[in-house]
């Protein structure tokens, strides 16, 4: 009777797979911190500072996951452990994809000026009236901050300009209101008396930040001039969010006006 053979042992023992599993665990923890930071603040479970700390720790854990996965990949290659090699590669790819979102936001924040109030009319910005009380209760001011913001906006966002529509006022007003709803904003007030304006609030998806928008329609000799002002209630800068919101709104308005 031939002697019984002991089960074949993988080269390197449990170390390659153990290191790979550690990198996967770090990835899961990083994902939990990064994903939960926004909802934790949005639903008043954590203050904003703590939620930002969660983002920071999540990013650090993600970098740690990549470092450990690279170590696991190196060990797996030396030990010729194909399964561990692929596990490490997948972990690295997943972590890079996870970190790309906060990395993109951070890069955008670094490349935009620290301003949070953007308007198409820097000389006479549209005013918040219905939303004035809500903005007074928030950290950022109700009134436009002034020339320091205007100077930075001119340099960073030269394309943020009023739009002109050679259409009747009633047509543009209806399209402007419909475009607000297309954007998913909540209308706070529509004023057609002294100044033709629409005030609305926009809530960001992840953290639930509330930004305010006022749209002003002005009758001119050959049509309607549309000005938009978008301002954050919280934060010194906005990473370009308010400027992009104005661009997106004008695109929606142009679709509505044909």
Model description:
- This protein is of the alpha+beta class.
- The chain is built from 7 helices and 6 strands; from the N terminus they run αααβααβαββββα.
- The N and C termini lie far apart (88 Å).
- It has helices spanning 15-42, 48-79, 82-111, 132-136, 147-156, 169-182, 241-257, and strands spanning 117-119, 163-165, 186-191, 196-203, 210-220, 223-232.
- The protein folds into 2 domains: 15-111; 117-257, Alpha-D-Glucose-1,6-Bisphosphate, Chain A, domain 4 (2-Layer Sandwich).
- Mean pLDDT is 93; it is low at 3-8.
- Helices cover 53% and strands 16% of the residues.
- Strands 1, 2, 3, 4, 5 and 6 form a 6-stranded antiparallel sheet that branches.
Query: Could you say how many structural domains there are in total?
Result: 2
Q: Can you count the helices?
A: 7
Structural class: alpha+beta
**Oligomeric state, counting identical vs distinct chains:** single chain
**Bulk shape:** elongated
Number of strands: 6
Give the helix proportion (percent range): 40-55%
**Beta-strand content:** 15-25%
Q: Main β-sheet, in a few words?
A: 6 strands, antiparallel
Let me know the average pLDDT. 93
Q: Could you spell the SSE succession in H and E letters?
A: HHHEHHEHEEEEH
Radius of gyration: 26 Å
CATH topology of the largest domain: Alpha-D-Glucose-1,6-Bisphosphate, Chain A, domain 4
Distance between the termini: 88 Å
CATH class of the largest domain, please? Answer: Alpha Beta
Task: Name the CATH architecture of the largest domain.
Answer: 2-Layer Sandwich
């Amino acid at each position: 009777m031939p002697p019984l053979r002991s089960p074949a042992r993988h080269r390197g023992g449990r170390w390659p797979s153990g290191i790979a599993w550690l990198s996967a665990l770090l990835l899961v923890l990083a994902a939990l911190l990064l994903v939960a930071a926004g909802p934790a603040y949005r639903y008043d479970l954590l203050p904003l500072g703590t939620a930002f700390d969660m983002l920071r720790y999540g990013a650090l854990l993600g970098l740690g996951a990549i470092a450990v996965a690279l170590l696991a990949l190196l060990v797996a290659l030396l030990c010729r452990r194909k399964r561990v090699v692929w596990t490490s590669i997948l972990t690295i790819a997943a972590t890079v994809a996870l970190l790309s979102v906060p990395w993109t936001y951070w890069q955008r924040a670094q490349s935009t000026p620290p301003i949070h109030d953007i308007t198409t009319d820097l000389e006479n910005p549209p005013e918040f009236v219905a939303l004035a009380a809500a903005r007074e209760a928030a950290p950022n001011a109700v009134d436009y901050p002034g020339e320091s913001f205007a100077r930075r906006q001119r340099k960073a966002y030269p394309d943020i300009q009023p739009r002109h529509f050679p259409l009747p006022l009633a047509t543009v007003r209806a399209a402007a209101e419909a475009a607000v709803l297309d954007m998913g904003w909540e209308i706070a007030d529509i004023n057609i008396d002294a100044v033709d304006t629409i005030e609305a609030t926009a809530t960001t998806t992840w953290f639930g930040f509330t930004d305010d928008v006022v749209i002003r329609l002005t009758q001119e000799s050959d049509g309607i001039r549309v000005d938009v002002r978008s301002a954050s209630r919280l934060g010194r800068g906005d990473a370009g969010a308010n400027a992009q919101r104005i661009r997106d709104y004008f695109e929606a308005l142009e679709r509505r006006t044909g």
